[in-house]
């Protein structure tokens, strides 16, 4: 990173304008997170939300990636989940249908059409999820208060419209951020959501740390520090682990394979050009954090469907199995899902999560790194890799390199995503229950990866706007 160049680029009006636009969009997003859904008895609904948060890890994760949207019953409660789901479905269909794959390779116009279809598919998905969330909260409130909550047709329509509009607005804000060229908009919105929860997490940890009702920390018997000794050592251990994990994440994100590109020397009239060398960097994890976001969203849908089934038909075996199998084991649901202690079912969700992270890493890398297109462009520009024939042979060579990098990168990304489950398993085996610091798992992975990617794009644009200074 060229931090001096980045700071120097702030003097450029266009660069400063782009940064201010991104910051302004994030402020607007955080404002929307506090705009409530127009429902009747909001106090009763918030009581139901608190009950769900105390029992469901899926609800806690939804609250995390929506920036507290569930806690405040915000219009952005549905978040970007419909857009992410629509993106996965459209990209899978594009790969499966040859005509659509040709369209995706048809330059900017083809990509615009596919993006437009993704936006259109987002709307019905947002409507369905909005209805599901309201219905689940309504029935949960009924179960907790034993009082009937009647919503008229107009109230249903207004609430669903508001939540659908909130999801579409988030999709639009994400695209506006991407247009500024200093970060992926969708990832940055999720990044802002997670960061916004840090003060709450920090406050909770601070309260627990200074709770000395069970004693204080003694230093060699000389004096006592007014902190909870158990919480102190747990926080210290996680802090050390956090530094190590962040270091590994940075190294994995910065790792890349450099391929040297040679350009043939050409003579035209009395002048010659070409005969130079360039590089083609291929990142170890080219897909970034997108596979983790895709995997989490993909696993969240069955849990939501299972919750809907149980809401209509309490005790239904299919709904119960869907919720159990597709809910991440954690401190919030451990005693409910595993009253008799850990069993083989505990490993199902982590295993599916790992497999999906690996699969989506391969899938998304194949979309953003098209080896056939790169090989074709190199051939048109007179570029070649030493010892490799231009054209199809180059495409095969690049595919082999990318697949080998993906094998290690996908496994490494999957193992890092599994760290929360590994940590919980260790605590279950030693203490009998998991700790459940969810922010240290998927949230940390998203924060670090998005921060690095945004810094990289900011660095590239900074070099571009300050290019004239180096002439």
Q: Spell the H/E element sequence.
A: HHHHHHHHHHEEHEEEEHHHHHEHHH
Give the domain tally: 2
CATH class category label of the largest domain: Mainly Alpha
Helix content: 55-70%
- Stated plainly, the CATH topology of the largest domain is called Preprotein translocase SecY subunit
Q: Which stretches of 5+ consecutive residues score pLDDT under 50?
A: none
Distance between the termini: 20 Å
CATH architecture of the largest domain: Orthogonal Bundle
Largest pleated sheet? 3 strands, antiparallel
How many strand elements?
7
Radius of gyration: 25 Å
What's the overall geometry? globular
* Overall pLDDT confidence: 76
Can you characterise this structure?
This protein has 19 helices and seven strands. By secondary structure, the protein is mostly helical. The protein has two domains: 33-179, no CATH class; 228-440, Preprotein translocase SecY subunit (Orthogonal Bundle). The strands form three sheets. A three-stranded antiparallel beta sheet has the order 6-3-7. Helix 5 (81-96) packs across helix 7 (107-145). The mean pLDDT is 76.
């Amino acid at each position: 990173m060229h931090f001096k160049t980045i700071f120097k680029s702030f003097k450029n009006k266009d660069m400063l304008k782009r940064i201010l636009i991104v910051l302004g969009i994030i402020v607007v997003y955080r404002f929307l997170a506090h705009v409530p859904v127009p429902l009747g008895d909001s106090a009763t609904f918030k009581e139901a939300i608190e009950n769900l948060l105390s029992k469901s890890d899926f609800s806690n994760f939804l609250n995390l990636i929506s920036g507290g949207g569930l806690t405040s019953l915000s219009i952005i409660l549905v978040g970007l989940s419909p857009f992410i789901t629509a993106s996965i479905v459209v990209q899978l269909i594009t790969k499966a249908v040859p005509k659509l794959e040709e369209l995706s390779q048809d330059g900017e116009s083809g990509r615009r059409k596919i993006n437009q279809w993704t936006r259109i598919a987002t709307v019905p998905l947002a409507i369905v999820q909005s209805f599901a969330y309201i219905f689940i909260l309504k029935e949960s409130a009924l179960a907790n208060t034993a009082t009937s909550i009647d919503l008229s047709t107009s109230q249903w329509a207004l609430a669903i419209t508001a939540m659908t509009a909130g999801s579409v607005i988030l999709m639009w804000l994400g695209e506006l951020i991407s247009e500024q060229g200093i970060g992926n908009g969708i990832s940055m919105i999720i990044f802002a959501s997670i960061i916004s929860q840090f003060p709450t997490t920090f406050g909770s940890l601070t309260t627990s740390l200074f709770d000395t009702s069970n004693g204080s920390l003694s230093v060699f018997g000389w004096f006592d520090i007014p902190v909870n000794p158990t919480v102190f050592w747990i926080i210290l251990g996680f802090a050390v682990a956090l530094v190590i994990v962040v270091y590994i994440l940075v190294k994995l994100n910065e790792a890349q394979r450099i391929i040297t590109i040679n350009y043939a020397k050409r003579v035209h009239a009395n002048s010659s050009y070409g005969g130079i060398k360039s590089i083609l960097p291929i990142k170890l994890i080219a897909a970034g954090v997108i596979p983790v976001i895709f995997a989490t969203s993909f696993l969240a849908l069955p849990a939501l469907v299972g919750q809907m089934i149980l809401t209509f038909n309490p005790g239904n075996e299919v709904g119960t199995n869907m919720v159990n199998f597709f809910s991440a084991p954690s401190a919030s649901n451990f005693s409910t899902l595993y009253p008799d202690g850990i069993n083989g079912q505990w490993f199902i969700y982590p295993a599916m999560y790992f497999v999906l992270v690996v699969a989506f890493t391969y899938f998304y890398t194949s979309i953003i790194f098209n080896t056939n297109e790169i090989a074709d462009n190199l051939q048109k520009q007179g570029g070649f890799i030493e010892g490799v024939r231009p054209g199809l042979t180059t495409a095969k060579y690049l595919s082999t390199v990318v697949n080998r990098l993906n094998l290690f990168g996908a496994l490494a990304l999957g193992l890092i995503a599994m760290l929360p489950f590994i940590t919980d398993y260790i605590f279950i085996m030693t203490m009998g229950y998991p700790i459940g610091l969810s922010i240290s798992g998927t949230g940390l992975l998203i924060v670090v990866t998005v921060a690095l990617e945004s810094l990289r794009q900011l660095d590239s644009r900074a070099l571009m706007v300050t290019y004239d200074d180096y002439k």
